[in-house]
């Protein structure tokens, strides 16, 4: 574990070596084991925005579901989750979710199609006058009062975002996990939604922003955790994402950074490993330009490096 | 009336009009096809009409009967004559009941309606409840039991279940009459309400027990889908209890499809009632249909076919209306999309 | 400190029976239900007719070791009658289902391949057949054909295609948007070529499963119209005939005449159902994830 700097508050959430696997049946009922998350470790502190960035299939949403304890029942989970210095057991997850840990989901599909949105927002409130709180939050997010009486399918994309953020806001949770909150939206809505999330962190809450959009993450995050094939390959400060990526520690983070349009669109060949056939060594080894025989033999552990964290034998 | 209500009512009317046009084309086809089929039956309609008196009827009388029923006209002519009469409301005269077909059908259908209505409501309520229990406890032993029970019911011959109920409740326990819709020897005017109920119980029970399977399996699957949906996942993330999730999200999203299905399955209910009425000698439309078929009563058989088609259509229409106009997504669809 | 792994499913359960995995269980069920059905057929075919001859010394015997299903009022062994009846039902069911599947395949493929007009016509035809209660249609067709074995087979065969037609049509419509079909079309392949080389091979497993799942309906409908008196003639050893006869002897307390033949029919229909369901979960694993 990386010792936090003395000035920083204690982490509200500490995820260590989290692994999630599923068993699935293929045609002919052959059984396969999928491993979408392998040895994932992150921490998050009050008042900060931590972005968890990875391409699709990197296990991002499952991280959110594992923290909340809402994975499907056939999921196998190992590793340690600690919330405010206490073990996050399944019972604690039930007690904390919705009140201390809130989720901002990705799309309108997460709202009950046959229930008016006002009622759905109010059902997220855990104390105080729910109706009053809902009105106040709608006013704050410039949602007209009659929106509360609408059904989800009647909302525009921007309204849906604000309604979904309202559910986290009304819960009063101290840890907010936003799972891909800006999928395929135009820039004004993205900016507005990210602004709301930054505001929530400004009020002293911890915000975990799970996204594939590294540019969006850079605009509001304090630190960025880079996921690859379900593992954290690097955790870096936003300031490290600069220039040609020389301050970054892991070859995958550098590749991600250089793949951005303004940094030259450099695409690394290859794809993430298939979830039922993970490589035995470093998960990034098959695509890594720095690969050596060491990398195929064992998986590198996370280690502290230059104020961040990296999972690579060769990073310096 | 608010403008949006007016729009909604107009939409319902347009919908019903379009559906009715479709029914019209289907009904015409059903009539033509049925008429064509029965006119090829090897059963001689004159023999069917004279029935047991066949030995006492001479050739002249046979010719007179054939002429009376128009049996000597070319088939197309007979079809047109019959179609025109049906359109005027004259569905012909039943050969075995010696009554207008319309009267036979309306009287018999009233009896069947009591039977089918009871079974419809009971199987709907119990099937829905079983489906909810199974779906909410998906994968547990109770779910397995309910699923197994319903699948077994779906493989059970209706008439055999009827026979079993008859053996147990009528023969062994003597709680119910062995047969006949009304006690033998009693004029239909003297039949009391209690008599009717007593004769209704077993056939209605047969249909209710079997009718449960379809609703229960469908409700279960729908609830399993709902509980695996993103919005239920989010409800869990919001800390809603499993009971609240079942109540607020489960029932709300499952009830409508279940009611729709129940209306859309009137065809099976009608078929089931034919068999149940036969086993229990219940004097309903189903039994009359079987008699018409067995004894070659062509006008009554055709009338039953047309009536069956209308009955099924009404069920489907109600299912469509409920599905389209009660669900807010479809009810308000289109007008809020601009927002 | 490890705390969350309590969620993990226990695999260490020890029992005397070896724990089979999902695939093995499914295959086992398929083999068992197929074996049950085959033994019914074998029993029906191998049993000589001497069990069916009238034997007035043995009338109306309740079930015993010698006559597990009892005997009827002519002293015939009910087990033998039932097995013969089930075999006949099975033959009728297989014939009728095969015809229905062929109709469904032809119409479903035609609807999805030959443009809007054909599609509209097929959809209309499906609606037409579903617009009258199924049993009424069966009665009507059996009446037209004057009942008998031919009438039953044709009535059942000609009325079981509509829902499968819908399934096949939807499947073909979906397949047509697939990449490999689009490529073939751009290469100028004919519709017939695409239908036989691309669509049929994909449909075969589903058609086979659809065929097996049609048997239960076909068999139950055959028994129903025979029971009503439109189907197989009273001389034939059909379950519908047996049950219809049993009605006359109910009040005299000969319960076995109705109980066992109907139960045997139920078991056979259920065996087909289980067979079809398990075959389907082999072909389409999405169903197995429940």
Structure description:
The complex is a heterotrimer of chains A (316), B (339) and C (290). Helix content of chain A is 27%, strand content 24%. In chain A, the strands form 2 sheets. In chain A, strands 6-7-8-3-9-10-12-11 form an 8-stranded mixed beta sheet, sandwiched between helices. Chain A is α/β, with parallel strands linked by helices and 316 residues long. Chain B has 2 domains: 3-87; 101-326, Orthogonal Bundle (MetI-like fold), CATH 1.10.3720.10. Helices cover 76% and strands 1% of the residues of chain B. In chain B, a hairpin with a 4-residue loop joins strand 1 and strand 2. In chain B, helix 5 packs antiparallel against helix 6, helix 5 crosses helix 8 and helix 7 (158-172) crosses helix 8. The longest helix of chain B has 37 residues, at 3-39. Chain B is globular and about 85 Å long. Mean pLDDT of chain B is 82; it is low at 180-187 and 334-339. In chain C, helix 5 (148-157) packs across helix 8 and helix 9 runs antiparallel to helix 10. With 290 residues, chain C is mostly helical. Chain C is 67% helix and 0% strand. Chain C has one domain (36-41, 72-288): MetI-like fold (Orthogonal Bundle), CATH 1.10.3720.10. The interface between B and C is large, with 53 and 43 residues.
């Amino acid at each position: 574990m990386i010792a936090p700097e003395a000035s920083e508050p204690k982490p509200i959430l500490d995820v260590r070596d989290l692994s999630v696997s599923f068993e699935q049946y293929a045609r002919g009922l052959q059984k396969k084991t999928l491993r979408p998350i392998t040895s994932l470790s992150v921490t998050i502190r009050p008042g900060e925005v931590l972005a968890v960035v990875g391409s699709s299939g990197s296990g991002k949403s499952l991280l959110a579901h594992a923290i909340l304890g809402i994975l499907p029942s056939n999921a196998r989970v190992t590793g340690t989750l600690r919330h405010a210095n206490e073990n996050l057991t399944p019972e604690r997850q039930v007690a904390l979710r919705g009140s201390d840990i809130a989720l901002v989901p990705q799309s309108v599909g997460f709202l009950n199609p046959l229930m008016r949105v006002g009622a759905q927002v109010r059902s997220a409130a855990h104390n105080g006058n729910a109706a009053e709180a809902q009105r106040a939050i709608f006013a704050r997010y410039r949602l007209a009062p009659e929106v509360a009486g609408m059904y989800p399918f009647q909302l525009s994309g921007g309204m849906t975002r604000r309604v979904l953020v309202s559910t986290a806001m009304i819960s009063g949770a101290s840890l907010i996990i936003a799972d891909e909150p800006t999928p395929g939206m135009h820039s004004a809505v993205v900016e507005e939604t990210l602004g709301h999330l930054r505001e929530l962190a400004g009020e002293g809450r911890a915000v975990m922003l799970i996204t594939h959009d590294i540019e969006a993450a850079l605009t509001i995050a304090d630190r960025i955790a880079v996921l690859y094939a379900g593992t954290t390959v690097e955790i870096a400060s936003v300031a490290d994402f600069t220039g040609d990526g020389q301050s970054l520690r892991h070859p995958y983070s550098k590749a991600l950074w250089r793949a951005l349009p303004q940094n030259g669109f450099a695409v690394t060949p290859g794809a993430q490993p298939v979830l039922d056939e993970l490589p035995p060594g470093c998960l990034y080894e098959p695509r890594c330009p720095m690969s050596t025989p060491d990398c195929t033999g064992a998986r590198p552990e996370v280690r502290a490096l230059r104020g961040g964290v990296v999972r690579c034998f060769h990073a310096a | 009336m608010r403008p949006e209500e007016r729009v909604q009512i107009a939409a319902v009317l347009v919908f019903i009009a379009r559906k009715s046009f479709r029914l019209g084309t289907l009904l015409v086809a059903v009539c033509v096809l049925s008429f064509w089929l029965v006119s090829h039956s090897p059963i001689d309609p004159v023999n069917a009409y004279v029935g047991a008196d066949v030995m006492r009827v001479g050739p002249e009388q046979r010719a007179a009967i054939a002429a009376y029923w128009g049996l000597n006209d070319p088939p197309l002519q007979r079809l047109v004559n019959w179609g025109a009469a049906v359109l005027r409301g004259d569905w012909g005269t039943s050969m075995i009941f010696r009554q207008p077909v319309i009267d036979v059908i309306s009287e018999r259908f009233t009896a069947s309606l009591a039977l089918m209505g009871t079974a419809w409501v009971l199987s709907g309520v119990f099937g829905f409840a079983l489906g909810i229990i199974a779906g909410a406890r998906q994968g547990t032993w109770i779910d397995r039991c309910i699923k197994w029970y319903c699948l077994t019911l779906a493989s059970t011959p209706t008439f055999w279940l009827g026979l079993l109920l008859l053996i147990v409740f009528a023969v062994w326990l003597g709680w119910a009459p062995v047969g006949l819709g009304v006690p033998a020897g009693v004029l239909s005017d003297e039949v009391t309400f209690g008599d009717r109920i007593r004769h209704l119980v077993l056939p209605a029970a047969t249909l209710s027990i079997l009718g449960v399977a379809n609703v229960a399996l469908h409700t279960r699957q729908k609830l399993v889908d709902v509980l695996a949906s993103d919005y239920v996942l989010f409800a869990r993330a919001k800390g809603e209890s499993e009971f609240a999730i079942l109540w607020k999200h489960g029932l709300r999203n499952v009830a409508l499809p279940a009611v729709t299905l129940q209306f859309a399955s009137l065809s099976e209910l009608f078929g089931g009632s034919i068999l149940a009425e036969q086993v229990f000698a219940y004097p309903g439309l189903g039994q009359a249909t079987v008699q018409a078929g067995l004894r070659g009563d062509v006008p009554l058989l055709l009338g039953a076919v047309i009536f069956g088609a209308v009955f099924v259509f009404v069920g489907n229409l109600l299912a469509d209306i409920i599905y389209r106009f009660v669900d807010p997504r479809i009810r308000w669809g289109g007008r809020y999309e601009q927002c | 400190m490890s705390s969350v792994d309590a969620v993990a499913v226990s695999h260490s359960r020890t029992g005397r029976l070896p724990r089979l995995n999902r695939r093995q269980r499914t295959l086992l069920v398929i083999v068992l239900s197929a074996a049950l059905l085959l033994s019914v057929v074998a029993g029906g075919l191998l049993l000589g007719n001497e069990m069916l001859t009238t034997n007035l010394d043995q009338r109306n015997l309740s079930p015993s070791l010698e006559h597990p299903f009892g005997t009827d009022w002519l002293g015939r062994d009910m087990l033998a009658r039932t097995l013969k009846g089930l075999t006949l039902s099975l033959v009728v069911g297989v014939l009728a289902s095969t015809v229905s599947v062929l109709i469904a395949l032809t119409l479903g493929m035609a609807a999805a391949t030959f443009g809007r007009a054909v599609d509209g016509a097929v959809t209309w035809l499906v609606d037409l057949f579903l617009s009258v209660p199924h049993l009424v249609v069966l009665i009507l067709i059996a009446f037209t054909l004057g009942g008998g074995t031919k009438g039953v087979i044709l009535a059942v065969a000609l009325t079981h295609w509509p829902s499968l037609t819908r399934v096949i049509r939807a499947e073909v419509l979906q397949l047509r948007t697939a990449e490999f079909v689009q490529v073939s079309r751009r290469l100028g392949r004919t519709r017939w070529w695409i239908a036989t080389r691309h669509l049929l091979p994909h449909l075969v497993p589903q058609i086979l499963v659809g065929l097996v799942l049609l048997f239960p309906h076909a068999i139950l409908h055959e028994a129903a119209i025979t029971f009503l008196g439109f189907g197989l003639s009273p001389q034939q050893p059909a379950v519908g005939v047996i049950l219809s006869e049993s009605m006359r002897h109910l009040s005299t307390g000969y319960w076995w005449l109705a109980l066992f033949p109907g139960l045997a029919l139920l078991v056979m229909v259920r065996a087909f159902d289980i067979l079809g369901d398990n075959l389907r979960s082999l072909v389409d694993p999405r169903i197995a994830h429940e």
